[in-house]
Amino acid sequence: MKRSLALVLALALFVCLFAGCGGSKQETPAQTSNEPANNEPIKIGLSTAMNIGAITIPEAVHLRIKQLNDNGGLLGRPVELVEYDDGWQLTGAINASNIMLDEKVCVVAGPGETTQMKAVASTYADAGIPFVCPSSDQTTTEDTTGYMFSGTPCDIMVGKAAADFVTSEYKPETVGIMYGTHDFGLHGMETMKKEFEALNVNVETEAHNLGDTDFTAAIASLTSKNVNAIVVWTDGTEMILIARQLHEMGVDVPIFFSAAMAISFCYEACDPAWIEGCYCITDFIANDKDEKTAQWQKDYKAEYGQDVDLFAARGLSCVEIILAAIEKAGTDDPAAIHKALQETKDVWTPCGIANYDPATKLMFNTCFLAKCEGGVPHYYATIEG
Amino acid sequence: MKNRFVKEYLGWVIVLAVAAALPLILTTNYYYQLFTQILIYTIATVGMTIIFGWSGQMNLGSIGIVGIGCYSAALLAQHLGVSDWRALLLGIAAGPVIGICLGFPALRVKGVYLVITTLSFATIVYSLMNNAVGLTGGPAGVYVEPLKILGISFSNKRAYYYFCLAVTALVILFVKRLNKYKFGRTMRAVRDNPDAAEALGVNTVRMNILAFVLSATCCTISGVLYLYMSRMAAPKLFTTGQGTQYLLMLIIGSIGSIPGAVIGATVITVLPEILQSIGIFGTNYKLVYYLILFTIVMVYPWGLFNLGKAAVAKVRDALHRKGEK
Amino acid sequence: MEVFIQLLVSGIAWGFTYALIGMEFTLVWQSSHLLNTAHTMVISGVAYFFAGTLLGKLGLPIWLSVILALVFAFVMGYLISAFIFNHMRKLDIGFALIATSIFASLLGELYLLIWGKNALHVSNFLRGTAHIGSVSFASVYIYIAVFSIIFIIAYEIFANKTKAGMAMRCVAQNINAAPLMGIDVGRSINLTTAISCMICGIVSLFLIPLLPVQSTMADGIAFKGWIACMVGGFGYVPGTIIGGIFLGITENLILMFLPNIYKDVFSFGLLIIILLIRPGGIMRHKVS
After folding, report:
1. Across the A/C interface, how many CB contacts are shorter than 8 Å?
2. CATH T-level assignment (fold) for domain C2-121+138-277
3. Separation of alpha carbons C139 and C186, rounded Å
4. Domain map of chain C by residue range?
5. Do A186 and B138 lie within an 8 Å CB cutoff?
6. Are B290 and C105 inside 8 Å of each other by CB?
């Protein structure tokens, strides 16, 4: 008994010593061989899910940093990404935050999920490291630490823009909102409901869980209440099912989808007939409205063989905002970067032009509107929230 | 008498000493919180050892119980406006209550049916956490202030680690003492042959429910400690997918042994971190992680602790035979 | 009334899906007293293989792709059985459960490596709308129902009239006595697991017009399939079918009275109550 316990102890010690040899995973993407000898790299942290379906944030970030370093880096210094796979989980984000601080990064991109962001806010704030999140949730507007920044259009603004657009275009009497019960769906619904009611439009809501496979009851309930328009605010998988069932049940009022419909896996899985003429309100839609967006789409396709999508756009937006702030600050001192982030102005991102408003804590005041034609959502307009 | 006592606990004392010394050698917040996570998972796995290993009742709903403990403490802390011993106690107190609530129905539903019943329980708990927005704050979760007991604020991560270490040591000590004597033997007798146990005058109903109560209490302790490590209670933490992690820790460690629970929790928590930090696997380190676990389970399904014991026994035999020559 | 029929049709279709998964799960249990918890990954693996490799990369015609996908499913099942089940057979069921569970996670990571992060789809495969009166629904619902009924009949014939089927039932009744009857238990288990994975493959193909192809596509459905076979009476195939349809219809009709988001709470709550009242499931089947 004593001997086997000693073995246990030895194993535990052994394992912990191994952990001691570890630490963070550092990545210096595609360095040019003639790197200046005494130029310290600028360390930017990346806390995100590295290998989970649909989350293409790492791809977008890696490509951008690689291009940056190939062109001489930032402020004449190479940029080093300190990455940690947080698995889109709370515990992962906590471990990531600790590693980022140990590695002395000057700013962090991520994490991307609401509860993660709330959990790590005080850790980053206490250390004075600002972090820019690829999350559209309203958490950034509720943040009290002052170190959390949004890297994408916020749902509060997008929901308001959606409600304004629906009302101005169609002047409905009653609107039906189908929403998922996760933070995106719930908060989106609350924002839109508030705005619709402020514009004197009645609202009927039907909630569903992620993972539900049948929406007959929800759709029937809305049609029985004679809604004049339906807004669907949920994730891609559910959206495909809902689009199909709306079509099958012969619903012929205008339908508006949230950002997921703009992602290729979602709209390509839908029959063109299901989504013909439907609108999609999103923080990103593939477009060639400006040169930079068009070029990015080409480069991404060349590098990865796939089209850009929502998450890639969000990831790149965070990085663009961060890089602009570092450039503006002229240094990698976190305090200076923090100040520069608060003064973010006219920064190009695929999700629009970023302008930080300290009063509302919003980084964007525009989002995109797409219209589905031939089974593909096309850029239709840029709307304000 | 004294000799036996020392012999039995010397190993654990050494482990405790190492655990206490580690934060003094590896001195960053990352290690403090990682080791805290190991402690938290150990307590939950000990709970599962009781119900799975010693009582033989296949309860896969433990993650729901952990969640109830976590949320109880979080909601009280939010309500009171302060995180202190009251939130802690309420969270832990939910354990025996849930244990009794689950223990009685479990008498009726046996074997594979109990698995599905407890999994359904965990799913219902998750669904309520996520959807009863008025009560639980919905998918965005509940945020709490750092733990404050008797004026000491545990916002310092190293201090909190020592707090958790003390709690874990107490839990392990308590459970070990229970297991060693009549209580543990009786529970295993009920597991192996309930009819024979009844015939010998054992109250099998009481033993089975007690198993649930003990196991649930360990789970809620784990939940409360997790709350103050992360300062968040969120539904995402308590899905049945997360529950599989505990089962993994149980099996990889060795079902039915406390050292096994410690080893399992350590390996499952630390191995992915090691693989990620080595860096050579890139983003595919999880693939390697599962490959390693799969190999372990296929080659030696009885867990690492039993593997260690078998290895030690073999070495001892070999030395013995050498000595005889 | 129309809504009621709509919910009923959808409930029956999904009920048959749960029943199919429940049946293949039960088949494996019957033949080996083990459980294949990797079946969710078999379903998504076949879908990935079909959409990504056969149709996508190789551009094969649909009929050939369907056949090859089912062969792929069969082979997957055979390998799982030959390597994991025959190894774990002599041990307690918990080991096989966790081994297949880890294997499932392993497969999930492998799929990401092979087919990438984005979900796949197949346009124009089993798409279409069917009508009963003024009620419309996806045509694939009909295919699922028809296939399920044919399968149940075929299974009954197989289990009761063929040598292999009776061997399987013999193993299910008494796994220790079976070899004494000249039955090669190992081969029986391999064959049954392979067939059960082929059923998974067929379910997978039916799911393609409904859901995007990703690792998690079958998780919720498979869980309900497991519930279906429990509610009906574990280890008893006719019970599984009843359990599946019952679950499918109930969870939909409940929505006529209760808010959508508590569907899970009520379905699973109902399941727990049923199991408490009749511990052997609806058909009162005892598990050995």
Report:
1. 101
2. ABC transporter involved in vitamin B12 uptake, BtuC (1.10.3470)
3. 40
4. 2-121+138-277
5. yes
6. yes
Instruction: Summarize pLDDT for B59-101 with one digit per residue, the tens.
Output: 989 999 999 999 999 999 988 887 788 888 999 999 999 999 9
For C215, the closest chain A residue by CA position comes to A53
**Upstream peptide bond of A111 is cis (omega within 30 degrees of 0):** yes
Q: A174 with A227: CB under 8 angstroms?
A: yes
Per-residue pLDDT of chain C (288 residues; tens, 9 = 90+): 778 888 898 899 999 999 999 999 888 887 788 888 899 999 999 999 999 988 888 888 989 999 999 999 999 999 999 999 888 888 877 788 889 999 999 999 999 999 988 899 898 888 888 888 888 888 999 999 999 999 888 888 888 888 878 887 787 777 778 888 777 888 888 988 999 999 999 999 999 999 999 999 998 899 888 888 887 777 777 888 888 998 899 888 888 888 777 888 887 888 888 888 877 666 665 554
Per the structure, how many domains does chain A have? 2
Q: Do A2 and B7 touch (CB under 8 A)?
A: yes
Measure in Å the smallest separation between the Cα of C269 and chain A Cα atoms. Answer: 17
**What are the C-alpha distances in Å from A252 to residues A168, A230, A231, A249?**
19, 10, 13, 9
Residue C125 buriedness (CB in 10 A; 0-12 / 13-18 / 19+)? middle
- Interface probe with B: pick from C83, C265, C270, C282, most Cβ of B within 10 Å: C265
- Report yes or no on A1 lying in a domain: no
Residues on C contacting B at a C-beta cutoff of 8 Å: 83-84, 87-88, 91, 93-95, 98-99, 101-103, 105-106, 109-110, 113, 223, 226-227, 230, 234, 261-262, 264-265, 268-269, 271-272, 275-276, 279-281, 287
For chain B, give percent helix, strand, coil, nearest 5.
80, 0, 15
CB-CB neighbors (< 8 A) of B110 in chain C = 279
Strand ranges (DSSP E) for chain C?
129-132, 135-138
Nearest in space to B42 (alpha carbons), one of B68, B61, B15: B15
Query: How close C89 gets to chain A, by Cα (Å)?
Result: 29
Alpha-carbon gap: B174 to the closest alpha carbon of chain A (Å): 18
Q: Which residue range forms the structural domain that includes residue A167?
A: 156-282+368-384
